[in-house]
Specification:
The protein contains nine helices and 32 strands. By secondary structure, it is mainly β. It folds into six domains: 220 residues, no CATH class; 54 residues, Type 1 dockerin domain, CATH 1.10.1330; 76 residues, Immunoglobulin-like (Sandwich); 81 residues, Immunoglobulin-like (Sandwich); 75 residues, Immunoglobulins (Immunoglobulin-like), CATH 2.60.40; 78 residues, Immunoglobulin-like (Sandwich). Strands 4-3-2-1-5-6-7 form a seven-stranded antiparallel beta sheet. Strand 3 and strand 4 form a beta hairpin. It is elongated, with a radius of gyration of 59 Å. The N terminus is likely disordered.
Amino acid sequence: MKNIAIIMTIILGMISYNSFGQSSFTEFSLNAALNPHSQPNIHTVNGLESMDYHGSGTLGLVISQSDVDAANTGVYNYRLDVNGDLTINSADAYLIQQYVNGEIDYLPGHWNMLNGIEKRSWLAKYLNYSKTRAESIGQSPKWTCGYFMVQESISTFGIEGIPPSESFYNYSENGRWNIPMYRTAVKVTLGINPDITTNNDGHFVNATLVGPNTTERFIGDPLKMSNWQFTEPQLAKVVVPGDFSISDEGPVRIFWYGLYAPTGDYLQWQLVSFDLSQDGENGTKDHTELVLENPNKPVEVDTEAPVVTVENKTLEMLQTLDTSPAALGGYTVTDNTDPTPTVVIEDESTGPNYSGYVITRTITATDDSGNVGVAIQTITVVDTTPIVATGDDYEEFEYSTTLDLSSAATGEPTFTDNGAVESVTEVDESTQVMDGTSKQVNFVVTRTWTAKDFADNVTEFIKHLDVSDSTAPTGDFPENKTVEEGASTDPSVTGEPQNVLDNSNLEVTVEFEDTVTESEGGKTIERKWTLTDIVGISLSHVQTITVNASQPFYLTVTRNANNLEVKYFSKVDEAITIQVMNIGGGKMLKTQSTDVTKGSNTILIPLTKSFTFNLVRVIDSNNDATQSKSFRDF
């Protein structure tokens, strides 16, 4: 059997990285290719009846008593070979009769309804059928593994359309067995056949999704390798990894390969791949729309009503209490099949009122099968909550004769109730004494509010109004004065505070204190005026009185290094001119103008050259006073 394998490196690469567009295929062939759980039923595309396949059980479109009678004649027809033994006899008629009578739900060839054991059994019937063909065509040198694989998929899965010029394959049984058998690319096992010398040798087999080998139906994840049964088309037998046909170290790639009738092109999709050198059991989904769950599982009829569970509630009354189902909750709805049953809620209420009330809530849930579940929730609203008072309980005020301490001016607390406030009363107590002393301006008012609701819940709120006088008296203080020596410095001459006032309109004491500073040019009096109210709050201001001496200024000269240091006392801020002259030669050595301030000033005059006898003269800005000072150089 040298033709059993062929070097398929290029073909394997093409399968793994094919770039054929999915839009090239019809919707029918695409859906069939991507659903490994179901019969392809390619007959409707090729113009044949949907029941025209091996073991369908009927010569028409519906299995009936006439099919039982036809099977009993013994005349062979592949449709009536329901037990797959390639003959027609009473055994086939018996199974069809059971189906017609409703004793069984499906026949052995109804692939969509079979469990894992039954699928393997029916696949074995097909392999028995294909064995004779494999033995006959296997003698032809041109038939390699790829051709065998294609013929198997034609006889089972079928292809859409047959090219008019195609005569190589046997299309007379296109889709005859109506089994979802896929084409599969593998690598062969080294060391078994002497013709296989390299691990790059590829091979083609077929694969069918049969699911677990159990009696459970409608299961079988295509991404689990144990759910696939692999068959060697040249031997018409089941093979597993490690056999000659499939290496247990190479890749396994399951793909769909079909004919696109309008163009006559063979195109393909890769569906699933497994890497036996890694985790061979878990495969990779190579096509995003591959159907993973079996769509043939019958939909069970639901007769179970939704379950509505409620929680009765007792609520404290609120003026804005939201008792809607969305806000309150307290119920759950579950159903065995419908995750979101339709819920209708109806309320009956004895309120609302301030003394309490009851809401009777009926919750009705209907699932998508029309089953109805009902439950009643009781919501009781009561009022046991006292009134809540909020506000400032302490506030300070500055005393004035126009101070308004009424509630309207100082503010009232806010009373809120879960029901409604019925009444509020107000009482004041004050420590103020109108005796002209500090008790008249420093005092506390204790204000008590009492609120009551309709349920006789009572709340008191107390606020302390603390009044004090911290404002100093005000007045217009006298301006600073300058007088000549011998003049009077009495307040009646130099000025006294005027317009003295206090926020209490009570007596203010006026006092002053002098601080005298003597100087060469006279003296300075700092007169501190103090205004004090009855509480002891005072305001002070310093008035400066300058007393000029009879000599308005003085002058001293000192020679320091390269400078003359001139000290000059002025009675006012003014501009002066300083002249430095040599007496002996009558030469002007330096002239410098500068600004001086009232009082003592020190001026440095740069002088790098001088003579023995010198004179310094200071001339004020008005030229009305001069003073000279001689000095001797040394």
